[in-house]
Design a protein that fits this description.
The protein is mainly α. It contains 12 helices and 4 strands, in the order βααααβαααβαβαααα. It is globular and about 55 Å long. The structure holds protoporphyrin IX containing FE (HEM) and calcium ion (CA) (2 copies).
């Protein structure tokens, strides 16, 4: 079982070390905090919050980072800095899976989102990756709301918390490859026309080079703040993904969207609840898995 402050005896400074490292990294490379948030989603939805996402391709392991669904993910190299600081203090004690969970919590604070005081720890690390499952488990950029709701529901996350978690798209970016289908050959009629013109400027080619770093920010107003701006944007038909418009108009989700758009406190409360639920997905505990020494490789 996960518990609060799992490392209180084995490594009392663990949570403080992670917080410090997340903070230092944020001041050097602000978008690391954005990455820690996305990592939580991409790790926990694929089987378990077990740091399977962090494994690189080596010794028979094929990295989940290679999946199309991981497109645009960045900053993995900085996880090593956090892990090394922990290994120095207490070798082979703090799991990479707990780094994923705690760095997401601390990253959200750097992005001026809610302070989630209590997050359970004691997760252990997977002994392999699940590349083959990533495409079925992580929703695609053009998936329908119904399929997204059922994905989240299958890991115990209700519709209200799902709507709140999508507020993560109040920070970060989307590359043109994930957008152009809404702009070319004709503009998706659910997009605000002036916003569509802006997006066409950001993404001038219908066939962007996947290696080019052409992207649009998720939220032009507060791009580095986890806030309820996402809901205001999607209600104004200024969302980037297909699901954004559905979220704002579907009767199952529209009431939550409208409330989150007007009440940042309510958004923060539901977002915190969503993050906690997500972080507790199917953990490995006890003698399952292992405590990796280097998050990139199984021991
Ligand atoms: C329906 C579910 C979701 C879909 C379809 C989806 C899809 C996407 C796509 C297509 C991108 C842009 C990738 C790129 O082009 O670079 C993205 C970025 C991002 N997603 Fe999601 N996402 C979903 C849910 C979530 C959740 C639940 C979280 C976190 C709680 C999250 C956090 C992020 C973050 C932080 C970014 C920005 C990353 C960066 O700028 O480096 N997403 N997502
Ligand atoms: Ca995982
Ligand atoms: Ca924002």
């Amino acid at each position: 079982e996960l518990e609060m402050n799992y490392y209180r005896e084995s490594c009392p400074k663990a949570e403080e070390i992670i917080r410090q490292q997340v903070e230092t990294l944020y001041y050097k490379h602000g978008n690391t905090a954005v990455s820690w948030l996305r990592n939580l989603f991409h790790d926990c939805v694929v089987k378990s919050c077990d740091a399977s996402l962090l494994l690189e391709t080596a010794r028979g392991v094929e990295s989940e980072q290679k999946s199309k669904r991981s497109f645009g993910m960045r900053n993995f190299k900085y996880v090593k800095i956090i892990k090394d600081a922990l290994e120095k203090e207490c070798p082979s004690t703090v799991s990479c899976a707990d780094i994923v969970a705690l760095s997401a919590r601390d990253g959200i604070v750097m992005l001026k989102g809610p302070k989630i005081e209590m997050i359970k720890t004691g997760r252990r690390d997977s002994r392999g990756s699940y590349l083959g499952d990533v495409e079925t488990l992580i929703p695609n950029h053009n998936d329908s709301l119904s399929s997204v709701i059922s994905t989240f529901n299958s890991i115990g996350i209700d519709v209200e918390a799902t709507v709140a978690l999508l507020g993560a798209h109040s920070v970060g970016r989307v590359h043109c490859v994930n957008l152009v289908h809404r702009l070319y050959p004709t503009i998706d009629p659910t997009l605000d026309p002036s916003y569509a013109l802006y997006l066409k400027k950001r993404c001038p080619s219908p066939t962007p080079d996947p290696n080019a770093v052409l992207y649009s920010r998720n939220d032009r107003e507060t791009p580095m703040v986890v806030d309820n701006m996402y809901y205001k944007n999607i209600m104004a038909h200024k969302g980037l993904l297909v699901i954004d418009d559905e979220l704002a108009t579907d009767p199952r989700t529209a009431p939550f969207v409208a409330k989150m758009a007007t009440d940042n406190g309510y958004f923060q409360e539901q977002f915190s609840r969503g993050v906690r639920l997500l972080s507790e997905t199917n953990p490995l505990t006890g003698d399952q898995g292992e405590i990796r020494k280097d998050c990139r490789y199984v021991n």
